[in-house]
Design a protein that fits this description.
Layout: E1 3-9, H1 22-29, E2 33-39, E3 52-53, E4 63-64, H2 66-77, E5 84-93, H3 96-102, E6 107-111, E7 117-118, H4 120-126, E8 129-132, H5 142-153, E9 189-190, E10 193-194, H6 197-200, H7 204-222, H8 224-238
Parallel strand pairs: 1-2, 1-6, 4-7, 5-6, 5-8
Antiparallel strand pairs: 3-4, 9-10
Helix pairs in contact: 2-4, 3-5, 7-8
The structure holds adenine.
């Protein structure tokens, strides 16, 4: 079955956006995955098809109505039985592990919000998975959905050109959860900087050890949190 991405949004013209370019764009044109947008406004109320309202109890911004969000989502789940993601800064952190798991599904439904939030009763009733890209606030869920989709699509079997390049990279299990080692290409010397001899020397064992050491040093320096996790896992495996 082709991977199907369903996007519920008040801005359907934002899609496919960058996903229509490069690898994912070619795969979309080739029918290797499909994208369907669903306009939230079609489920709005009144002459102006309102989808939001002021927050109960006061406060800044507007809130997406529960009945509108539910009507839109129900119309999609009626045709597609897929995990439902609500991009939100208060969600669980997005991760490569999540992308790997989602790449094994038949597709995903993203509900993109542009307001202060969604009425909590919608979340309680439909229980979408709230997922955050990081500790910062975007103006809406659309770009977050695109980021998550791109991370997932490149792992969906058949979409990425070369299978192993999806494996040996930062955060992947194949790389032991470490950041990736440095890469080089021609020319051999550039602005007085040469490619390290060990990279071009032809000793594969030595090169693998060097890459591993570089990945460890980089992780230790830039991501002490990942390094601690990696160390704890290595200790566990020893015991
Ligand atoms: N919507 C607004 N901010 C977001 C974030 N940090 N992650 C995911 N969705 C969001």
């Amino acid at each position: 079955m082709r991977f199907a991405a369903h996007i519920i949004t008040a801005y359907p013209h934002m899609f496919p956006g960058p996903l229509g370019e490069s690898l994912s764009g070619r795969a979309l044109a080739d029918g290797l995955w499909q994208l369907q947008t669903h306009d939230l406004r079609n489920f709005g109320h009144g002459k102006h098809q309102n989808i939001d309202d002021t927050p109960a109890g006061g406060g800044a911004g507007m809130v997406l109505r529960a009945d509108v969000a539910a009507a839109a989502l129900d119309s999609v789940t009626a045709i597609a039985d897929l995990p439902v993601i609500l991009p939100s800064p208060r969600g669980v952190p997005f991760s490569q592990k999540m992308a790997q798991d989602w790449a094994q599904t038949d597709g995903l439904i993203f509900l993109c919000n542009r307001f202060e939030g969604v009425d909590e009763r919608f979340i309680a009733a439909r229980q979408p998975l709230e997922v955050s890209l990081g500790d910062y606030v975007l103006a809406g869920g659309e770009l977050a959905a695109m980021v998550m989709l791109e991370a997932v699509l490149r792992l969906v079997p058949g979409i990425m050109g070369k299978a192993e390049s999806g494996m040996d990279e930062s955060f992947s299990l194949a790389n032991d959860g470490l950041l990736e080692y440095p890469h080089y290409t021609r020319p051999q010397e550039w602005e007085g900087r040469a490619i390290p001899d060990i990279v071009t020397g032809g000793d594969h064992e030595k090169l693998a050890a060097w890459r591993r050491a570089e990945a460890e040093a980089l992780t230790q320096k830039r991501r002490p949190d990942l390094w601690a996790e990696h160390r704890a896992k290595s200790e566990d495996e020893k015991n």
